[in-house]
Write a structure and sequence with these properties.
Elements: E1 5-6, E2 17-18, E3 22-23, H1 27-37, H2 48-61, E4 64-65, H3 68-78, E5 92-96, H4 102-114, E6 118-119, H5 131-147, E7 150-155, H6 159-170, E8 174-179, E9 199-202, H7 206-216
Parallel strand pairs: 5-6, 5-7, 7-8, 8-9
Antiparallel strand pairs: 1-3, 2-4
Length: about 220
């Protein structure tokens, strides 16, 4: 996820930290801010909404901050505002797909976990020797869908994953469909339920999928 914050400095040779235009920091700027001012522009301790709020307050103030101490004092005062965005609960997600997509399932799960999200169940580690095992796995997966905030279906997927999509739709979950090919847009190959209003289709790269999920949560 690309984070935008106020550019806290104007001149790499200056000792002052300035509120100014909103911009995406380069690696050089991040390194300089950390080394010169002790400000970590990539810290995960603040949510995107919190960073944007601080960014706006610094820009609105029109102030110039001389050194990290003065800046920290201002930021701490902003964080005491009644309207300062509260931290949301940790996002719980479930990924449904086919064993053919197991590497992609692991990659998406890893990306979300790195952002502080929780996987409600990792079915890729399940093995069934008989029908009793299948039933036990099915109960665990049903519970995982129930406990999730976000349901992700990675296509192409089999009957099990599509059944789980039905559960997620019935439970009014936040649903993301990650399409790895163009079949989802082919009327002869797609499913009616893939195109319901509450199903968000992502057909670009994995980082876009993760970004879209985190934008909402």
């Amino acid at each position: 996820m690309i984070l935008h914050m106020t550019q806290y400095f104007e001149d790499s040779e200056s000792d002052k930290v300035s509120g100014g235009s909103v911009s995406q920091f380069s690696q050089e700027e991040i390194k300089m801010a950390k080394g010169k001012f002790g400000v970590d522009l990539t810290t995960p301790s603040l949510t995107l909404a919190q960073r944007m709020y601080i960014d706006g307050k610094i820009a609105d103030s029109g102030r110039t901050f001389y050194g990290k101490e003065e800046l920290d004092t201002f930021v701490k005062s902003v964080m005491k505002d009644e309207k300062f965005p509260k931290r949301r609960k940790k996002v719980k997600y479930y990924i449904a797909s086919s064993f053919k997509n197991i590497e992609l399932v692991h990659a998406v799960a890893h990306g979300l976990n790195q952002k502080g999200c929780d996987n409600t169940y990792d079915w890729t580690r399940s093995q069934a020797a008989d029908l009793e095992d299948l039933q036990a796995i099915g109960l665990r997966e049903e519970k995982a869908v129930t406990n999730s905030d976000v349901f992700i279906l990675i296509l192409p997927a089999g009957k099990g994953a599509n059944t789980e999509l039905g559960l997620a739709l019935a439970m009014k979950k936040d649903i993301y469909l990650y399409a790895t090919n163009s079949d989802v847009w082919d009327v002869d190959k797609t499913s009616t339920f893939y195109h319901l209003p509450n199903v968000k289709i992502v057909d670009s790269d994995m980082s876009t999928l993760i970004s879209k999920i985190l934008e909402v949560h």
